[in-house]
């Protein structure tokens, strides 16, 4: 019974975890424990079904006296699940993963942990009360096993299966270290700064989402600066650099970067960035040079493990991108279409176009592409036999920005499917049969900047009406671009 009560303490802590905001970045030694999560979680995953099996074997009298075994297994499951939840929380708080799937897994994981503790508690309660709570205990045992399956499934999806697990196990044992550059060869800009920009800044300062007019995806853009008109980095007067200033402001200042609520740069990251800017922002400055600098040496020493972690993560993403490219390449070959990387973006984005001479393009083909819809930013189906109904599929390409549909048999009845595309900026409908009524749908398109309507049956009144109602959209009566 005492053991049972003892379990209520961690159970209460787990409930608290559910409501706690994530801790800020943790030191790498905590992260080490966090990375044990994928290793430890196997214990409760094996032990809880084992309890279920023991119960069944006891019931069919295959096992004579399973109570003792069950109490031991339940205690082991409880202890291991406390460790799993703790490690999982540290991994979560490290900010290494984010997104809805992570949150779902986090919640399911804590529920599974609670389930194990409550089941164990009920089991001991049954021992004390001559089985009065046995139904409750069995119900919880069953439910907990189901929740564990669900949580593991989410965790598995989160980690993209085997690869990921191996990557992180090897992160613990250091075998993947080989893939990273040796410290002696590391460059300050490329290997220290770019990785933390990539995780903390690029989400708002990329080709698609250029907050403050500032692009941070290349060295040249970094120097240039944004809407403020100040250079991002002023080599002659480094301390006047907009980038320098934005990260130096007190964290609660309105202009501080990143904005409030986003994961801030750590003190080490700020120190490295400032040192790099004031020393001339050279892309060839080596980490080795900083290690010889009295002030920077301890910063670098402390920061290297974190930097390795970020680089490893980027490496993983790069591998994922290569995989995606291969899959899309094979699909393009099969469907006789062209798929190419969208070089204007730094993310995992692609363009889709017809080969010349165009083969038929059926909705079967669109369906085959469906799992990849979010990766397409530009689609050119000029002269294809796409139908208005097929636009339904195109309407699910959530990152689509440019769509070329000229010289097709569209009559415009499917344009309604496209109005939910949040980022569609350019639409070419020249040489199609789109009519007045369907073209009026364009008023509802949220991001449309240019529409080409050359040689279509639409009337001048409708063109006028569109121009009046949607002044942010240019209505162009010219052929327009093909890709
Ligand atoms: C959540 C989105 C977001 C993130 C993340 C973010 N920024 Fe910004 N950034 C903005 C917005 C919005 C502006 C424009 C408003 C302003 O000037 O404060 C801006 C403006 C800037 C500017 C000024 C550009 C100019 O010349 O006007 C700099 C420099 C900058 N950010 C640097 C950074 C750095 C460095 C990081 C990462 C540590 C970062 N930002 C992360 C949203 C973001």
TrEMBL record:
Signal peptide: none annotated. The lineage of its organism: Bacteria, Pseudomonadati, Bacteroidota, Cytophagia, Cytophagales. Keywords: Coiled coil, Membrane, Transmembrane, Transmembrane helix. The keyword Transmembrane applies. The keyword Coiled coil applies. InterPro entries: Cyt_c_Planctomycete-type (IPR011429), LRR_dom_sf (IPR032675). Residues 201-261 form the Cytochrome C Planctomycete-type domain. Residues 307-341 form a coiled coil. It comes from the Bacteria. This is C-type cytochrome domain-containing protein. The chain crosses the membrane at residues 41-60, 72-93, 105-125, 137-156.
């Amino acid at each position: 019974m005492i053991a049972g009560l003892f379990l209520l303490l961690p159970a209460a802590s787990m409930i608290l975890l559910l409501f706690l905001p994530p801790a800020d970045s943790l030191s790498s030694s905590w992260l080490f424990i966090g990375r044990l999560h994928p290793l430890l979680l196997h214990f409760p995953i094996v032990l809880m079904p084992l309890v279920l099996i023991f119960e069944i074997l006891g019931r069919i009298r295959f096992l004579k006296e399973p109570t003792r075994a069950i109490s031991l297994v339940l205690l082991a499951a409880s202890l291991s699940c406390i460790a799993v939840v703790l490690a999982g929380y540290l991994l979560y708080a490290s900010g290494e993963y984010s997104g809805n799937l992570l949150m779902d897994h986090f919640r399911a994981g804590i529920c599974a942990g609670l389930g194990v503790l409550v089941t164990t508690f009920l089991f001991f309660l049954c021992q004390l009360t001559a089985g009065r709570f046995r139904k409750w205990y069995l119900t919880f045992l069953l439910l907990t096993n189901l929740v564990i399956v669900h949580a593991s499934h989410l965790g598995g999806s989160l980690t993209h299966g085997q690869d990921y697990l191996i990557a992180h196990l090897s992160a613990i044992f250091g075998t993947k270290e080989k893939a990273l550059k040796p410290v002696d060869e590391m460059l300050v800009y490329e290997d220290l700064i770019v990785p933390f920009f990539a995780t903390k800044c690029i989400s708002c300062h990329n080709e698609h989402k250029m907050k403050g007019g500032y692009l941070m995806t290349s060295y040249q853009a970094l120097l240039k600066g944004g809407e403020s008109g100040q250079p991002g980095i002023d080599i002659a007067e480094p301390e006047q650099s907009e980038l320098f200033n934005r990260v130096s402001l007190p964290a609660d200042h309105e202009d501080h970067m990143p904005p409030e609520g986003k994961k801030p740069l750590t003190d080490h990251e700020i120190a490295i960035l400032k040192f790099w800017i004031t020393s001339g922002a050279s892309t060839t400055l080596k980490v080795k040079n900083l290690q010889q600098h009295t002030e920077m040496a301890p910063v670098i020493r402390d920061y290297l493990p974190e930097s390795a972690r970020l680089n490893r993560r980027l490496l993983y993403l790069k591998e994922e991108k290569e995989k995606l490219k291969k899959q899309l390449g094979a699909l393009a070959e099969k469907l006789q279409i062209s798929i190419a990387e969208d070089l204007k973006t730094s993310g995992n984005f692609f363009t889709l176009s017809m080969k010349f001479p165009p083969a038929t393009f059926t909705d079967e083909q669109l369906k085959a592409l469906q799992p990849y819809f979010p990766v397409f930013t530009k689609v050119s189906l000029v002269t294809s036999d796409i139908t208005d109904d097929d636009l339904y599929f195109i309407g699910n390409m959530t990152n689509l920005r440019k769509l070329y549909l000229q010289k097709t048999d569209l009559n415009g009845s499917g344009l309604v499917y496209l109005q939910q595309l949040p980022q569609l900026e350019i639409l070419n409908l020249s040489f199609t049969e789109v009519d007045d009524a369907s073209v009026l749908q364009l008023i509802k398109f949220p991001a449309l900047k240019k529409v080409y309507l050359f040689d279509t049956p639409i009337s001048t009144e409708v063109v006028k009406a569109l121009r009046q109602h949607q002044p942010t959209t240019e209505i162009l009566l010219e052929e327009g671009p093909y890709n």
